Amino acid sequence: MKERSKILLIDDETASREALVLLLKSSDYQITGCGSGQEAFQLLQRERYDIVITDLLLPDTSGIDILKKVKEDSPLTEVILITGYASAETAVQAMKEGACDYITKPLNIDELRIILAKTVEKHRLLTENVYLKKQLRDKYEFANIVGNSPAMQKVFNLMKRIIKTDSTVLIFGESGTGKEVVAKAIHFNGSRKDKPFIAVHCGAIPENLLESELFGYVRGAFTGANKDKIGKFEAANHGTILLDEIGTMPMHLQTKLLRVLQEQEVERVGSTRPIKIDVRVISATNQNLEEEVQKGTFREDLYYRLNVIPLHIPPLRERIEDILPLVRFFLEKYCREMKRPLMTIAKNAMEALELYSWPGNVRELENVVERTVALTEENVITLNDLPRKISEMALTKVSEQGVDLVKTITEIEKMMILEALSLTNGVKAKAAAMLNLNRTTLVEKMRRLGMER
């Protein structure tokens, strides 16, 4: 059911006020009326209204004073002024103070309805925008980045210092470690949090399009440029731009990027007119840029310009303590998304996850958890529910309590035979060849292991 807009109507003319209250109630608004500024201030202290409609002249105050008070206490509340003096000065002053609109006496009901409908929609969009921005800030709070290990605590401590500055940051880390998540956390916890965050994946954009994507272009700059278009740097003005995979940027664009960083201005493709910008630059790479500088594939001066504050995100294999909390986090996320009870994970399955080297880092772990939640029927994830390359890790672990070596080797043999048979669609001769066995040896092994079926 659609929620009704809450409106406060302030008018000292009783008959006019009561008629308007009845009219707006019939239009499905939730409306309260009062006849003085004092009464209005008391109501505004107790209630939060979506829209305030106030007469400009009241016995004990002015509509402008009410407007100022409303905007001070509740910036999202829209204010419409009613005035008998339709002067341009009154309208200009009201708009400067933050009024949404004004209407003159005698009131035109149809005009008021139109103004109210526009104001309700404006308030809805503003409220929704604030809500979405809050969701983004909440999502990228440091507390929501999972990492209890000493390695990640070092990262958090440095991030807390970084957000107090406006310096350029270069984030190093293997693919899948969460470099973009860290960049967003820096932005949404810093002074630019209410401004744009624009991410550009330099390696994913064709080289011939990257320049116009970053810096924009003017009409006629090239075939198909039918109108001016702003680039990512202009779109990020007053906010943050993330240049991901910066090491893949071609040399001629590195030169232009260096000039942008030095001059804080861009030139659109096909134009010679510089456009001033105020953008925080965060770069990210999974390459060793110092080696690229030595090879001559990355400009040394650009490297030092980008690397004002280096931030290294450790790979998952170097922070094993974070695997369990990450698994719990992803289990909760995907069980909620797939509308199923919260799943748990068996001890030996968790041990296998901690023994695996995770070449794809956190991204790979998230994918494994999502796939397992989607494909596992029971509410407990066992070793058999994990991908074979991971479940095999548990078989190689020697604990303090010792290990049954014969049983473990038997299980490994079974797994390898099953995998070979799967790859060869059950053709034993081909499976035997893959295992460097002859067919009769494989058949005998399968019989001994109880695998004839």
TrEMBL record:
The answer to whether UniProt assigns keyword Kinase to this entry is no
Keyword terms, alphabetized: ATP-binding, Nucleotide-binding, Phosphoprotein, Transcription, Transcription regulation
The record's InterPro entries line, in alphabetical order, gives: AAA+_ATPase, AAA_lid_NorR, CheY-like_superfamily, Homeodomain-like_sf, HTH_Fis, P-loop_NTPase, Sig_transdc_resp-reg_receiver, Sigma_54_int
Q: Which residues form the Sigma-54 factor interaction domain?
A: 145-374
Which residues does this entry mark as bearing 4-aspartylphosphate?
A: D55
List each copy of the Response regulatory domain by range.
6-120
Q: Which Gene3D superfamilies did the record assign?
A: 1.10.8.60, 3.40.50.2300, Homeodomain-like, P-loop containing nucleotide triphosphate hydrolases
Q: Has UniProt tagged this entry with the keyword Secreted?
A: no
The record ties this protein, via SUPFAM superfamilies, to:
CheY-like, Homeodomain-like, P-loop containing nucleoside triphosphate hydrolases
Q: What SMART domains does the record point to?
A: AAA, REC
**Protein name in the entry:** Sigma-54 dependent transcriptional regulator
Organism annotation: Geomobilimonas luticola
